[in-house]
């Protein structure tokens, strides 16, 4: 995406002759055949440059030729063979207009008026000249102009235009102005967008714009433009408690530059809203797919990533239902749905890896975890016994092995050259779960970390002489994995981390 203001580009194009760009024929010379969308966008782009001569900048000047009047200094306009920019040069089949280089020469007020009325209705042309009555002036029939411009809107990141036919004599051009001042205002930013709807009408004098907006016409007062400060004191005081009052769009715009503690609450709020009311989410974020915002893709994919990273089976089933059944109303919503679907495989993979990684025992500085291992024993671990012990053959003919390391007894299987650790057991202090629990900790310690643990009769081949076990089995992407904390006299006497593969203890 471009990172320059389009108004700056247009001004540069005017000064340089647009580097070989082609200029459209006058819209009033257009044939009676219907215009195409590309025709209208090209008309808008050229008209925008003309509009800016009055509102934003000025025509090229010969600074060696000056006149003075009323305390103002005027310089001769040097606009011979001036090429107006167009958005694109379409193929002949894509256009009803003839796109050939036709540079214009503006040497007098009459020339300037004629060029303005090429694109604008007489009333619009009048309003342009009225913007600054002393900007352009003829001296002895030659056009001069006062030097200077008002300066572009610094909060404008970029803009985009889309054309839609209202009827055979009327098109509208919707211009979206994107705001983002993060680059020069961090840790604060003004971010969001505003839109202007312009009218192109077929009049007796040809196709003319009857309403228009400047190239940098971002409306900072629009309800879709927001001001944020990413400062913890400010966030906790002004923002953290008010997230429920924020619109989906405001939450999404906040997330464009948020990270860490600044992102979790807003992202959780927005994702839960998506699961409850996807229609509102799709409508609010329709501006995102074509936007120039750097992290727009991350924000669009957040509902999928959050659901698989943070939520359970119920929320994941709801997400699947939305992705499978949602019917987009337009191309922007289709792009959002595609972004969500494309993010899903990686989100599932990451969540599965994280779920598996939580089923481990940490001992002697290494993480022994359940699951598939690559590269052959001892895989990527250091200090494991040189040779594992054979433990016979499994029900499906796979080879079984065991080894002990750092107070942990490990069992794994080799099926067709693929190793998979399916059980790890410890009965001594030292080895810890990822939650920090070890043999010797109290039952209350276990419950404080594994808040969903369920008490049941002691399980395992010998039950370790325990009174009962507390079972941590979250399900979901953890599938058939669990951790059993065997409790004897209120204290952990053994820990077993296990993957049952084809079943669960609690369900």
From TrEMBL:
PROSITE patterns attached to this UniProt entry: PROKAR_LIPOPROTEIN
Domain of life of the organism encoding this protein: Bacteria
Protein name: Lipoprotein
Lineage: Bacteria, Bacillati, Bacillota, Clostridia, Eubacteriales
């Amino acid at each position: 995406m471009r990172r320059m203001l389009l108004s700056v580009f247009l001004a540069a194009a005017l000064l340089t002759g647009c580097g070989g760009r082609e200029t459209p024929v006058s819209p009033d010379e257009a044939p009676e055949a219907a215009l195409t969308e590309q025709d209208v966008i090209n008309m808008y782009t050229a008209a925008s440059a003309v509009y800016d001569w009055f509102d934003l900048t000025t025509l090229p000047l010969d600074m060696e030729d000056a006149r003075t009047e009323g305390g103002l200094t005027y310089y001769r306009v040097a606009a011979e063979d001036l090429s107006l920019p167009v958005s694109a040069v379409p193929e002949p089949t894509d256009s009803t207009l003839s796109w050939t280089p036709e540079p214009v020469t503006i040497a007098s007020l009459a020339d300037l008026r004629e060029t303005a009325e090429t694109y604008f209705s007489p009333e619009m042309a009048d309003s342009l000249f009225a913007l600054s009555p002393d900007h352009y002036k003829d001296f002895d029939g030659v056009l001069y102009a006062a030097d200077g411009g008002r300066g572009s809107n610094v909060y404008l990141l970029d803009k985009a235009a889309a054309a839609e036919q209202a009827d055979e004599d009327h098109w509208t051009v919707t211009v979206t102005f994107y705001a983002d001042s993060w680059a020069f205002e961090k840790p604060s930013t003004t971010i969001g967008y505003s839109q202007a709807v312009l009218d192109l009408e077929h009049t007796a004098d040809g196709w003319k714009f009857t309403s228009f907006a400047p190239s940098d016409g971002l409306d900072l007062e629009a309800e879709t433009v927001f001001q944020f400060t990413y400062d913890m004191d400010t966030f906790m005081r002004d923002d953290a408690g008010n997230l429920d009052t924020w619109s989906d769009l405001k939450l999404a715009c906040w997330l464009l530059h948020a990270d860490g503690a600044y992102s979790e609450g807003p992202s959780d709020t927005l994702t839960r809203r998506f699961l409850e009311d996807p229609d509102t989410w799709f409508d609010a974020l329709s501006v995102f797919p074509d936007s120039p915002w750097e992290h727009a893709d991350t924000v669009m994919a957040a509902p999928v990533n959050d659901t698989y990273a943070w939520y359970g089976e119920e929320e994941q089933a709801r997400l699947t239902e939305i992705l499978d059944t949602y019917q987009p109303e337009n191309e922007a919503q289709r792009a959002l749905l595609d972004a969500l679907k494309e993010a899903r495989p990686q989100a599932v993979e990451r969540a599965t890896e994280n779920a598996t990684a939580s089923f481990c025992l940490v001992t002697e500085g290494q993480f022994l975890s359940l699951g598939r291992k690559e590269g052959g024993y001892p895989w990527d671990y250091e200090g494991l016994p040189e040779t594992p012990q054979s433990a016979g053959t499994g029900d499906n003919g796979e080879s079984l092995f065991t080894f002990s390391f750092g107070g942990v007894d490990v069992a794994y299987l080799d099926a067709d050259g693929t190793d998979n650790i399916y059980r790890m057991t410890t009965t001594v202090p030292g080895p810890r779960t990822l939650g920090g629990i070890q043999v010797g900790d109290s039952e209350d310690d276990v419950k404080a970390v594994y808040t969903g643990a369920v008490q049941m009769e002691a399980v395992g081949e010998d039950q370790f002489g325990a009174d009962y076990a507390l079972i941590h089995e979250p399900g979901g992407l953890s599938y058939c994995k669990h951790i059993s904390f065997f409790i004897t006299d209120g204290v952990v006497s053994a820990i077993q981390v296990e993957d049952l593969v084809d079943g669960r203890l609690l369900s």
